[in-house]
C-alpha cells in the first residue's frame, strides 16, 4: 500500500475551509473543475501533473466541517482520499491523506501536485474568500472592490476605528478654538521691555508633548495693548519686532496603524493619517518597517517605494481637519507575522503598534 500525506496550517476558520473543499465553484478555482454525475462527481483532473485521466469521486464519509472521505476512480487506478480539519490556536490544520488501493501511480508527481494544491492554491483562494467576507469596502473603492460578494461578513476592528475617530473630532474642536484666538490677536509692536514669554517664539516652537501639537498661540498681554497706543521711539532699532507676522504654523499629522486582515503568508495593513491643524499638510512621509523578506503590494491611497525592509509612502496633501487612509498588502514568509515591525509619520511613531 502506498500513501501520500500533506499537512498545512491555515489562518482561516473551519467553515471557510470546508466551503473550499466541497463547493464545486470554489473547488475549480484551486484544484479542478467538476461535474455532477448523480450520486458521484467527475473531477477534471486529466491535465494535472500526477493524473492520467479525469477522476470519478464517491463520498464515503461526510462529517462537516471536520472530515471528508472520498473513493476516487481514475482509469484503472483506485484511491481513497481523506481530508481532516482540526482547530489550532490561529486557525485550522488541514491533513490530506491519499492511499493507493488498486493500480499504480507516479508517487513523486502525485506528491508534488498535492503540495502545490494544498499549500499554494488553496491558501490563495481562502484569502480571496476572506477579503470578501471580512475586508470588503466597496463604497470606498477599496482593493477588493472588483471581487464578487459571496456573503456579508463581520466588520473587523470597528470599535478601534470609532474611538480614533472620536479623538480626531475632539482634536479638531480644540484647534478651532485656538484659531479663534489667533484671529483676534492684535498685531505685535516693538515694546521697550518684552515679557518673559514672547508669543511669536512660542508659536514657532514645536510641541514637546506626546500628543499632536495644536496651533494655539499665547494670548496678547495687557502691556502689548498699551504699547500700541504709545509706541516706543526706538521701535525701528529692533528688527525682530518690525518684521512681518510669522506664518500660521501647520500642526503635525497623527497616524494610527491597524492590521485589518490576516492571511496565510502575510496580512493587510492600514495607516490612517489625521490632520488636526487649521491648514492642509502638504508634504508628509509614512515609513513602515517590514520583516525580513517581506514585500508590499496593492497599495491604495498613496505612492509606495520599498528599499529592503523599509517601505516609504507619500501622497497628496491632507486637508485641515481631515484624514487620509493608506491600505496595503504584505506578503511575509514568517507565518507568525501579523503586522509590521515599525511605523512612523514624519519621524513620529504611529499609534497601534
From TrEMBL:
It comes from Micromonospora halotolerans. Residues 189-250 are annotated as: Disordered. PROSITE patterns: CBM2 (PS51173). Residues 246-353 form the CBM2 domain. It comes from the Bacteria. The chain crosses the membrane at residues 162-183. Keywords: Membrane, Transmembrane, Transmembrane helix. Pfam families: AHSA1 (PF08327), CBM_2 (PF00553). SMART domains: CBD_II. Belongs to the AHA1 family. This is SRPBCC domain-containing protein.
Amino acid at each position: 500500500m502506498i500513501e501520500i500525506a500533506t499537512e498545512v496550517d491555515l489562518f482561516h476558520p473551519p467553515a471557510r475551509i470546508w466551503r473550499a473543499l466541497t463547493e464545486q465553484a470554489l473547488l475549480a478555482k484551486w484544484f479542478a473543475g467538476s461535474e455532477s454525475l448523480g450520486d458521484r462527481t467527475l473531477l477534471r483532473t486529466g491535465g494535472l501533473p500526477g493524473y492520467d485521466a479525469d477522476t470519478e469521486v464517491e463520498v464515503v464519509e461526510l462529517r462537516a466541517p471536520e472530515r471528508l472521505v472520498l473513493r476516487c476512480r481514475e482509469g484503472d487506478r483506485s484511491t481513497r482520499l481523506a481530508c481532516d480539519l482540526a482547530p489550532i490556536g490561529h486557525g485550522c490544520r488541514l491533513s490530506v491523506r491519499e492511499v493507493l488501493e488498486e493500480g499504480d501511480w507516479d508517487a513523486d508527481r502525485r506528491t508534488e501536485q498535492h503540495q502545490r494544491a494544498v499549500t499554494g492554491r488553496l491558501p490563495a483562494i481562502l484569502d480571496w474568500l476572506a477579503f470578501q467576507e471580512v475586508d470588503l469596502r466597496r463604497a470606498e473603492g477599496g482593493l477588493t472592490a472588483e471581487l464578487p460578494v459571496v456573503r456579508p461578513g463581520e466588520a473587523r476592528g470597528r470599535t478601534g476605528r470609532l474611538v480614533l475617530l472620536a479623538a480626531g473630532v475632539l482634536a479638531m474642536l480644540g484647534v478651532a478654538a485656538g484659531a479663534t484666538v489667533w484671529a483676534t490677536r492684535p498685531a505685535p509692536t516693538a515694546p521697550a521691555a518684552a515679557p518673559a514669554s514672547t508669543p511669536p517664539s512660542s508659536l514657532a516652537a514645536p510641541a514637546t508633548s506626546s500628543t499632536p501639537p495644536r496651533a494655539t498661540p499665547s494670548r496678547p498681554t495687557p502691556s502689548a495693548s498699551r504699547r500700541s497706543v504709545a509706541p516706543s521711539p526706538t521701535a525701528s532699532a529692533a528688527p525682530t519686532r518690525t518684521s512681518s507676522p510669522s506664518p500660521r504654523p501647520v500642526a503635525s499629522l497623527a497616524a494610527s496603524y491597524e492590521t485589518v486582515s490576516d492571511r496565510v503568508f502575510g496580512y493587510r495593513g492600514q495607516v490612517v493619517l489625521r490632520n488636526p491643524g487649521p491648514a492642509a499638510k502638504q508634504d508628509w512621509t509614512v515609513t513602515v518597517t517590514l520583516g525580513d523578506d517581506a514585500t508590499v503590494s496593492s497599495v491604495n491611497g498613496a505612492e509606495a517605494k520599498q528599499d529592503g525592509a523599509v517601505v516609504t509612502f507619500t501622497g497628496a496633501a491632507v486637508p485641515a481637519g481631515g484624514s487620509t487612509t493608506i491600505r496595503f498588502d504584505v506578503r511575509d514568509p514568517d507565518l507568525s507575522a501579523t503586522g509590521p515591525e515599525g511605523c512612523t509619520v514624519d519621524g513620529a511613531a504611529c499609534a497601534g503598534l
